[in-house]
Design goal:
Elements: E1 5-8, E2 12-17, H1 34-39, E3 46-47, E4 56-62, H2 65-76, E5 81-89, E6 96-100, E7 103-105, E8 113-115, E9 120-124, E10 127-141, E11 163-175, H3 182-189, E12 206-207, E13 215-223, E14 229-233, H4 238-243
Parallel strand pairs: 4-13
Antiparallel strand pairs: 1-2, 2-4, 3-4, 5-11, 5-13, 6-10, 7-8, 7-9, 10-11, 10-12, 13-14
């Protein structure tokens, strides 16, 4: 698989990660990962942060241990600025907002995390800012099998497979912390879950033509090892453009 490099210096790579590829090896899967692909050319490569398998967009990789530690410190100090784009179900009421809600584990599904009532285990601070870019209606499908998305436990979601129109909101999202599935969990807590999310949002309709999680890492801003601020952006995926016209 050919993956576009958006930025490169002697220590750091920023790539345009496609949707549908794992970042690092998973015990349950033998799929080729981002780490597998780039370690062929950069044998000392290390993962600095993660994007979920179905999330696309800009992602940083460290070419050596020094760069890895340097970037990790920035992430821990919350100095790295990340911006995402998301399409969510329903019309978000407020033009802007902040979701400040700790995240724990779901008591029902080990794969899922949860904000608010019912969460279990260690509750970790999580803050997400959002801004409405557009509210719109789109033709959609009722059944995830029509979107070529993975089946959820229990089979496909009903027998209906008709096109109809539903409301969606296009958001710019800025996570201030870096918890697992943070944006997906927080937007579900807001009652506007990310569209086409088979894990956190299996029952809502998916915009027609979008066959993947509607979450894209648009940009990232960080300091390189020389102390210079670098901002790297990933182009909007074509499937997003078709939905958000």
């Amino acid at each position: 698989m050919k993956i576009k490099i958006l930025y490169e210096d002697s220590n750091i790579l920023a790539i345009d990660k496609p949707s549908g590829i794992l970042v690092h090896p998973d015990e349950r899967s033998k799929e080729e990962t981002i780490l597998d692909i780039f370690k062929k050319e950069y044998p000392k490569l290390e993962i600095v942060h993660r994007l979920d398998k179905e999330t696309s967009g800009v992602m940083l990789l460290a070419k050596n241990n020094k760069a890895h530690e340097f970037l990790k410190k920035q992430f821990m100090a919350r100095e790295v600025k990340k911006t995402y784009l998301a399409i969510v179900n329903g019309w978000v009421k407020n033009e802007r907002g902040v979701i400040n809600k700790p995240i724990g584990r779901s008591p029902k599904d080990f794969r899922r995390h949860l904000a608010g009532r019912g969460a279990r285990g260690e509750m970790r601070e999580a803050i997400t800012e959002y801004k409405v870019l557009k509210r719109f209606k789109a033709s959609c499908v009722q059944n995830f099998s029509s979107c070529a998305l993975p089946r959820v436990r229990g089979g496909t979601l009903g027998d209906k497979n008709f096109a109809h129109t539903s409301p969606f909101t296009y958001l710019e999202v800025r996570p201030k912390t870096g918890r697992t599935h943070q944006i997906r969990v927080h937007l579900k807590f807001l009652n506007h879950p990310v569209a086409c999310d088979s894990l956190y949002n299996p029952d809502n309709p998916c915009p027609k033509g979008l066959s993947r999680l509607a979450l894209h890492a648009k940009s990232i801003e960080f300091k390189d090892l020389k102390g210079k601020i670098q901002k790297v952006e990933s182009p909007l995926p074509s499937e997003f453009k078709k939905v958000v016209k």
